[in-house]
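Subgroup meeting minutes
Present: P.N., E.W., G.H.
Scribe: E.W.

1. P.N. recapped why we're keeping a running log of single-chain structure predictions: easier to compare across weeks, and new members can see raw inputs and outputs side by side.
2. G.H. added today's entry (477 aa).
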Amino acid sequence: MKKILIVICLVLVAAAVASCFSSRGGSSASGGEVTGVGGTSMAEPAPYGMVLVKRGSLKMGTDKTDSLWGKDVPTRDISVDAFWMDEKEVTNSMYRQFVYWVRDSIIRERLADPAYGGDETYKIEEDKNGDPVTPHLNWNKPLPRNPDEDQQRAIESVYITHPVTGERMLDASQLNYRYEVFDYVMAAKRKYRLNPSERNLNTDFETDPNEVVMISKDTAYVDDEGLIHRETITRPLSSMWDFVNTYIVNVYPDTTCWINDFQNAENEVYMRLYFTHSNYNDYPVVGVNWEQANAFCNWRTDFLIKGLGSQAKFIQRYRLPTEAEWEFAARGKEGNELPWQQDGVASDKGCYYANFKPDRGNYTKDGNLITSKTGIYSANSNGLYDMAGNVAEWTSTVFTEAGVLSMSDMNPTLTYNAAKEDPYALKKKSVRGGSWKDPESFIKSAWRSYEYQNVGRSFIGFRCVRSQVGTASRAKK
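Output recorded in log:
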């Protein structure tokens, strides 16, 4: 009887386990029919400071020839998937957190470096006979160092003193951020498969198992002089590691852009204080080039996923928006020429809807001289602020005259991270939105401009996006 009861219990337990397994993603069947594998859906929470731009379509560009330059902006009907976007431009305060993280990382490494702290022992003083001055110590163990002195030595190593004014400041030349990116797109292309038989599906052609496939990857290193060297190397495909690109970026913004962008202008106060003074905390960061903006996106991703544990694998990375995503988001739900729904750039009472240059030489007509605090003008219907004016914004898309005409009509973009040795013309990146120094025609959502990827400007900033996973399907009614 006991054996029968035990068998019955085991059967019941097995049935319960099978039922549980089926409901949690295991194979299941009903009467021998395939019913699919179940799973638990995940509703992605809104990332901090971001709003969801739902998927949709638009006619990108404009049929109107620009009256200022006489250029035609290429047009095309395109569709984009849903994505999260920063509701405001990245501020000085946010970017300083990145800079300080890099600074602190250098200090932490130096605390373990014998030259700054670490395990280096002090020199043992000896008398004239070569004997230790303090023979009671255990000479087999390192002498203790003063941790406060070590810490101070490491901290001081990332600062310099101005040779004339005596001002203490961060040594910007040391603030290098190293990161690696696995290129999923290149690794997925059939021509780069590690197995030669998978590179061509046309069975009329015989596979060459000895075919040499060349792959290009970006790499970087810092020499003994502290200089960053970047290059793109081409070599035979050997492993998945060939799709890992390494970048080293000096992250400190170019604060001298305020001087170099405007000759014969009294902008010294912005050069010295705009990025560092707390009064400008909520203003958009400027002087950040395209490479630095990408480095910030990578750091922001790593900063997030370190606290997520196993859930990190479901999180899409922060990145710069594509040119198409940016225009789609800027136009709002109505697809307007400008982010707001009203006609013109100001209300009947003369209140402007954005920070730009309303009149010839009159930057202050809209209430601001240079940049303004992010978010002080009304958001568009997507909940996004400053999509026109304040600062123009980097996109991830390579700038070409053909624009969207040379891209897919679904999630269109063109990407190329030009190496240092590439022709300078290949380093143009699309910039959107116009800025505080631009006239009305430049702040329209369809207006296209560009800047070189290694140049920081006093009128260019950026914001981040993240792709949404598993957007909900719905029937059109």
